[in-house]
Amino acid sequence: MENPITRICSHQLWFAILISFLLCTILLCFDSLSTNINGVTFSVNKQQNPFVIMKNMTSSDDAHSSCAGRYIYVHDLPTRFNHDLLHNCQLLTRGTDKPNMCPYMENQGLGPEIESSHGVLTNGSWYSTNQFLLEVIFHHRMKNYKCLTNDSSLASAIFVPFYAGLDVSRFLWDSNLTVRDSSGLDLVQWLARKPEWKKMWGRDHFLVSGRISWDFRRQYDDDINGSSWGSKFRFLPESMNMSMLAVEASSWNNDYAIPYPTSFHPSKDSEILQWQNKIRLQNRPYLFTFTGAPRPELENSIRGKIIEHCRSSSACRFIDCSNIDGEKCDNPINVIKVFEKSVFCLQPPGDSYTRRSIFDSMLAGCVPVFFHPGTAYSQYLWFLPRNRTKYSVYIPVRDVKDWDVNVERVLMGFSEDEVSALREEVIKLIPRIIYADPRFKLEKHEDAFDFAVKGMLERIEQVREVIRNGGDPSVGFADENHYKYTFSDN
Ligand SMILES: *[C@@H]1O[C@H](CO)[C@@H](O)[C@H](O)[C@H]1NC(C)=O
Ligand SMILES: *[C@@H]1O[C@H](CO)[C@@H](O)[C@H](O)[C@H]1NC(C)=O
Ligand SMILES: *[C@@H]1O[C@H](CO)[C@@H](O)[C@H](O)[C@H]1NC(C)=O
Ligand SMILES: *[C@@H]1O[C@H](CO)[C@@H](O)[C@H](O)[C@H]1NC(C)=O
Ligand SMILES: *[C@@H]1O[C@H](CO)[C@@H](O)[C@H](O)[C@H]1NC(C)=O
Ligand SMILES: *[C@@H]1O[C@H](CO)[C@@H](O)[C@H](O)[C@H]1NC(C)=O
Ligand SMILES: *[C@@H]1O[C@H](CO)[C@@H](O)[C@H](O)[C@H]1NC(C)=O
């Protein structure tokens, strides 16, 4: 008598043998079989054991097959490059007149939750977020990235969780340049010793900064030229082979701009819809708004003109963020309250080309008005539509000497329908320009992190393609590329 269990087993065994046989036949029928894993094409031919490739293919979880070409390996850096900086947060405040940084570390870098806002914000998705903590938020988002791998040979990109901006902020006001440059140097030496480095000489490595790229590109080391701001980190040979995502990119082609963090960090898709619906219905009594501090020391800045114009126009609301009142603008409730009530928000360049306020205002459904292409159009290429007339107003004024525009008249020229279309486009962009709460996962929306990772993976794949075709990967990589950031008006 045959035991039924043995019979089932033997049926399954035969079935397995049959399948294996068929697979072998299929594989051996072809002279060569190619497969593309993470953008690298592997070929197997008759002489090789076809199971070698089977094994490699099944080593990645089936549920993650959509991860092909998207695997990221995260370097396990010594804690002095990231965690220790948070632990010793009191050192991050030194030399600045900024408030104590320590409270902003809470909630994985989102900062303290905003509990009550008297109806200005929606419940449960808002935090007092400090821009410099973007490095921490991004790192935490990366820890939950769907396609992480511990096998660096599978990875399409290598993430370096160095808190570059927090690190350099300890020494930006220190005149000893050796000290200012030391941790960047330490980091690249650590990276270059790792086996992952040699695969592409760092061209698949990327990192994130909550400070502008220029803070890592000190131009001169002498007092004659006067410009000694920042570290030399991005001019180190290893660093030039890596890509950096920063809130503002430089004109070098290995820097990419990603949005500044706002205070809105939804944990669910419904929180995004709820917010979009709220601001869509908002009553907007002010035609335009400017929020910022006067900068009398920046003589060429058009800020002074804008403030003057705003003060003299009954259609404009001006929020003065100068030192006396500075705290007002650090509080997201005060800032969003005004943006929610404004149709247009003026965004002249600040101390640098970009400002966090661009994203705070768009988040509130306020249509941005730009004066310089470097403020957004040539920066956030992965996040904002190419066609700028769809979501913004452009009033080109390069220099204060050219100031002869009547902003109010220009903005009055838009019909109600045109304004609604612009605003609707801005509201649609919201998910792309915000960072979701790293402790949760959105199901339907892709946020700024998702778009940043996608852009980075595509960029690295382009470099890989150049290498595959025998080209020189340094061409157009670490150059100062005058094409990308010509700041042209077209
Ligand atoms: C497949 O895995 C083997 C051993 O695990 C390795 O030697 C080989 O290089 C891998 N092949 C590919 C195409 O990744
Ligand atoms: C938001 O929270 C406040 C106070 O906790 C509560 O009074 C209010 O009803 C909440 N609003 C909504 C829409 O849930
Ligand atoms: C990588 O290894 C660490 C430590 O062994 C483990 O906690 C983590 O889950 C692994 N990650 C993946 C994506 O396999
Ligand atoms: C800068 O700091 C380093 C390390 O602390 C020290 O060795 C060096 O003498 C300092 N240089 C100057 C110019 O003070
Ligand atoms: C100072 O600036 C000039 C012109 O920008 C440059 O040619 C020169 O090399 C700089 N000096 C130093 C020591 O970097
Ligand atoms: C940078 O990349 C190039 C290849 O494009 C390589 O020759 C060079 O050695 C790399 N630099 C460093 C410091 O690894
Ligand atoms: C850009 O958008 C505007 C407004 O939606 C539209 O009228 C125009 O045709 C678009 N231009 C291009 C080149 O798509």
UniProtKB/TrEMBL annotation:
GO-annotated molecular function: glycosyltransferase activity
Gene Ontology cellular component terms for the protein in this record: Golgi membrane
Transmembrane parts of this sequence: 12-33
Keywords: Glycosyltransferase, Golgi apparatus, Membrane, Signal-anchor, Transferase, Transmembrane, Transmembrane helix
Cellular location(s): Golgi apparatus membrane
InterPro entries in UniProt: Exostosin, Exostosin_GT47
One Pfam family hit: Exostosin_GT47
All copies of domain Exostosin GT47, residue ranges: 67-404
Membrane topology label: Single-pass type II membrane protein
Family of this protein: Belongs to the glycosyltransferase 47 family.
PANTHER family per record: EXOSTOSIN HEPARAN SULFATE GLYCOSYLTRANSFERASE -RELATED, XYLOGLUCAN GALACTOSYLTRANSFERASE GT14-RELATED
Name under which the protein is recorded: Putative xyloglucan galactosyltransferase GT14
Lineage: Eukaryota, Viridiplantae, Streptophyta, Embryophyta, Tracheophyta
